[in-house]
Amino acid sequence: MSDEVIVSVRDVHKTFTVTKTPGLAQRMRGKRREVNRIEVLKGVDLDVHKGETVVILGSSGSGKSTLLRCMNKLETIDSGRILVNGHLVGYEERGGKLVDEKATVTARKRTDLGMVFQQFNLFLNKTALGNVMAPLQDVKKLSRAAAEAHALESLGKVGLLDRKDNYPSKLSGGQKQRVAIARALAMDPSVMLFDEPTSALDPELVEEVLAVIKAIAAQGTTMVIVTHEMQFARDIADVIVVMDQGIIVEAGTPDEVFFRPKHPKTYALLRRSGLAVEPPGSV
Amino acid sequence: MALALVLGLLVALARISKSRILRSIALVYVEVMRGTPLLVQLVYIFFVLPAIGVNIDPVPAGILGLGLNYAAYLSEVFRSAILSVEAGQTEAALSLGYTPGKALWRIVLPQSFIVSLGPIGNYFIAMVKDTALTSVIAVTEILKTANVINAQTFETTQVYTAAALLYLLISLPLSRIVSALEKRARVHV
Ligand SMILES: Nc1ncnc2c1ncn2[C@@H]1O[C@H](COP(=O)(O)OP(=O)(O)OP(=O)(O)O)[C@@H](O)[C@H]1O
Ligand SMILES: [Mg+2]
Q1: What pLDDT score does A270 carry?
Q2: B107: which chain A residues are within 8 Å (Cβ-Cβ)?
Q3: Nearby residues of A199 by Cβ (< 8 Å), 6 or more positions away
Q4: Which of A195, A222, B89, B158 has its CA 20 to 30 A from that of B83?
């Protein structure tokens, strides 16, 4: 691990605005348009160093996915800064304000971040190999032959060479997620983002995906992982971060967080996952 | 058909675009084309446009009329097919460094095209049937010419018999082709 910071999150705020337009009947009864604002991120600070594995824990709705999606600008932020390799992604700063940058520039910067989704999101009309090759050809502009060679290497890393010609519909959930990992990894990003990579899987398929992620971590890949798998988090994390209602309430090594939780929310979270922990302040 | 496909896709893209103006124009186009009879549109193109100085031959006029009309229907097929592709597909593409345009072109559209193939086929068959409508233009054209010749030669019987024969010459093969195509279509459906 080095001091080099790959992802730097500074005081990030994010509010979702949900507008409910009532139907005609309700409008005639005098009901007005309803605007709901949910503040999902309320000032988040986080540094991810090169080679580090950061695991984000937190109860449902605490803003974990949103934080990840803000890193590669699948979501916008309201204020604060997120730097990846020292650059804003999706914005440029003008007079202290964030302004949307050109889509082509954002696209290029996004190749620095590989993302693995809960629902896999494999391209349904492409084989396993085709999924990994497509961005290599379309985005990295590799020749067909070079893309194929590189894609095969990446599929090998997740142990799926024998399934390379299968379409997603002919792959198990675990295999789909491993293809998705291979696809993101093949782009050679500086950091991999995992958003609950095993939450959509049958229990017996979880382990094969976790094993692949562990293998990648062991090669020194920088990673941010959102997960509810506590044992896995403890095994793999260099840093564990606990989120609650849009802020980071606790951050530390697995030992610190699991054995000496400082925040009541961390304690509650660990208890809920069936881990025997001492309540905060008892040691 | 090619005109209908290309224009239909463009209209569909306009209808889902971010620009409010583009969306409204496309919506008006679709509503007008679907809300008025094809025959009226054909007659309009062939007989009203010349009045404002745009002259079109019967065959291009027929192609244009059918193309414009079917583009409206096909745009709806494309639109629902594009919207049926999950947002996750686009998000995955974006996260891999595709620009929004490239994600649409390389990832979403190929998938929606597969979904649309069935409906496109059905519209194609309907379109072939509607080509019979374009003969209205041709028939009127024949009659107009017959009138002119008649006025010059006064060989009334011969002129109108020739006109009738000409019409048969156009309509018989057309209805033959249509029913043959229908038969083939029924085999495939
Ligand atoms: N697109 C959206 N529009 C409106 N509200 C949203 C949107 N996405 C998320 N939210 C809200 O933001 C809050 C945080 O969502 P987020 O998905 O980041 O939570 P999470 O920590 O990932 O939870 P989970 O463990 O359930 O995945 C939730 O209250 C959610 O309802
Ligand atoms: Mg989530």
Answers
A1: 86
A2: 123, 134
A3: A118, A227, A228
A4: A195
Confidence of residue A233 (pLDDT cuts 50, 70, 90): very high
Residue owning tokens 């995955």: B92
Tokens of B61: 């006029």
Q: CA-CA distance, B171 to B149, in Å (whole number)?
A: 22
Contacts of residue B73, Cβ cutoff 8 Å, sequence gap at least 6? B8, B33, B34, B123
Residues 6+ apart with CB under 8 A from B121: B188
Token pair belonging to A171 = 């792959």
Q: Say yes or no to pLDDT of A246 above 90.
A: yes
Find, among A205, A272, A244, the residue nearest to A62 by Cα.
A244
Say what the alpha-carbon torsion angle B25, B28, B31, B37 is, to the nearest 10 degrees.
-100
* Ligand 2 (single-atom ion) residues, CB below 5 Å: A 65
Distance CA A95, CA A99 (A): 10
Show the CA angle centred on residue A53, arms to residues A47 and A55, nearest 5°: 80
Ligand 1 binding pocket includes A130 (Cβ within 6 Å): no
Low-confidence ranges of chain B (pLDDT < 70): 1, 129, 132, 134-143, 160, 163-164, 166-168, 170-189
- pTM to 2 decimal places: 0.82
Q: Determine, for residues B95 and A72 on separate chains, whether the beta-carbon distance falls below 8 Å.
A: yes
